UniProtKB/TrEMBL annotation:
The chain crosses the membrane at residues 175-199, 220-242, 254-284, 296-322, 334-354, 366-388, 403-421, 433-453. One of its GO terms (molecular function) is protein-disulfide reductase activity. It comes from Butyricimonas faecalis. This is DUF255 domain-containing protein. GO terms for cellular component: membrane. It comes from the Bacteria. InterPro entries: Cyt_c_assmbl_TM_dom (IPR003834), DsbDN (IPR028250), DsbDN_sf (IPR036929), Thioredoxin-like_sf (IPR036249). Keywords: Cytochrome c-type biogenesis, Membrane, Signal, Transmembrane, Transmembrane helix. GO terms for biological process: cell redox homeostasis; cytochrome complex assembly. It is a multi-pass membrane protein. It is found in: Membrane. Residues 176-383 form the Cytochrome C biogenesis protein transmembrane domain.
Amino acid sequence: MKKRLLTLIFTLFVGTFSVFAQMSDPTSWTFSQKKTGDNEYALTFKATIQPGWTVYSMSTPAGGPMPTSINIEKVGEGIELVGTAEESEPNKKHDDVFGVDVWYYSNNYTVTQKIKVTDPSITIVKGSVEFQACQEGACVPGEKDFAIELSDKGAEKATVAAADETKDATEDDSLWLFFWVAFGSGLLAVVMPCVFPMIPMTVSFFMHGDSNKAKAKAKAIFFSLSIIGIYTALGLIISFLLGPGFINWLSTNWLPNICFFIIFMIFAASFFGAFEIVLPSWLVNKSDKQADKGGYIGAFFMAFTLVLVSFSCTAPIVGTVLVEAARGSVLRPIVGMLGFSIAVALPFGFFSFFPSKLSNLPKSGGWLNSVKVVLGFIEVALGFKFLMVADQTYHWGLLDREVYIAIWVAVFTLQALYLMGKIKFAHDSDLPYIGVPRLVMIIITMSFVIYLIPGMFGAPLKALAGYFPPQETIDFDINRIVRDNAKEIMKSGVQVGGTQGAASAASNEPVKYSDFLHLPHGLDGYFDYDQALKAAQAQDKPLFIDFTGHGCVNCREMEQSVWSDPRVLEMLKNDYIIVALYVDDKTKLPAEEVYVSEYDGKKKNTLGKKNTDFQIKQFESNAQPNYILLDSRKGNEKVLKPHVLQPARGYNKDRDAFVKFLQDGLKEYKARAGK
């Protein structure tokens, strides 16, 4: 710990300007073209990404980090886009900060866009690539201009990013996690009414159907391996048919998400006993006849028959695994079915080797159907996640956060009542008493319901962020109501708490961009540097500059983990004027504010470009988050050296250091002002 603090202090007071204030450019881009037809070309944009950095896919969903975008000039004026841009296969992970799944690239990234030139005078295609590169502790927005000369002699073929020989560790971890989730799903399938009773029947068939016990065990093992092969083949087929492009479409488009929602509801209805999902009887009978032939062929068809016969119970579970798999990389269906099938085959192989252990298995009974029904409730809850994706994409407003949480509260309350025996379905047995396992499930379910309820009134419920709509969609947020009421009181002339709320009152002009930009934790502040500086001078306070971005993962992490500290909040409210400068905001500047930068000679026509240019020119940095404490006094608008902070790797959660950063800056400001 001491070593870490010493390193931190050294970084802040000695190395800040020489290391973190330097310009970061973690990517290098190359551009090429290939003629594919009459006046048609394939443009290829390839990025080489420095180790430790990531760039986000064009398919990154709304509410997540800044996606990559390709901007081609003269589209509609002599150039037509042919289809959509095609990307190399991305990695995928769930981002707890943004609460969404994100697609990203490490090492290499390739985009190919086909175009058709309808104006013969166009021989050079110009435009720019906008993107965001991030590593732990910093995000860097980037824009690369390109001018690609069109000719018949392009690259022999369009460049395609090769698969990385060393896979990203996060993706590997994600696949392993999904494997174990699928494995757990397979264990649930084993205790389904269509599968569990077949374990002793199948093992007895092998053990008593052949006088050679070793041969019988070999056939039983082959039977288990056949189950694994059949299910894994299904995963291979899904991966082969879909491909990475179609998988990305499944993940982000509203139509497949609506279909997935309906499928999950059908699965749930099947588990509740409304109907059974069955395959044609002729298929089952034909497989069963082949199983009668004996030998290893017979063992294979016995496994195939088991898969078919158990379809009514396992189909919803298999379907759930495949739906989740199809929303990730092309390897996930294979990994998912492998994990699922190993879990299903495991008990058959185990009891074939140790048939004496069969007596330890619990007897079949009504508890098997209870497992199905409980899974039905879980299917309903998970299914609404897909409807949520479609709802957010098209802004239908059907599933605000409190509505979504209310549905989950209702679903899991009904599940608890079912486990208590207060609700009964058609295929359920009588429940004369509640056993210990069922009691444990009741306690877990009710505890989960109690945990959910505060979320309807504004509690963040961080553990489930990826399954709920954004916090901003909640209508009845108690914290927000209290903050808004406090602001109204302050406007009427009554001081409540700190003085930050009076910042806007110090001037007669409204806070620019406050209609769509907001600070976290109910803090008041500004989103325009000049306006914030005037307010700081009027109140004789130092200026806290926050260079941030909508798609900056590390910025949200700092706000959640560090800004939430009561000591930090108190100082930001009472001792500083805050200005948040978003470097990736696409809001167009008024015509009179558009200018050409002295730094790069480019036109700055959006709020984000203006703030990025300001950060680079004034502070020689382009990384986010970047926090700067400024002496706001007229004629002394200088950084409170050495209090320039851009969190380093491993530092972004150190609250004590951030508190010291603010305290030292305030002390320096007062010393300079002679206070």
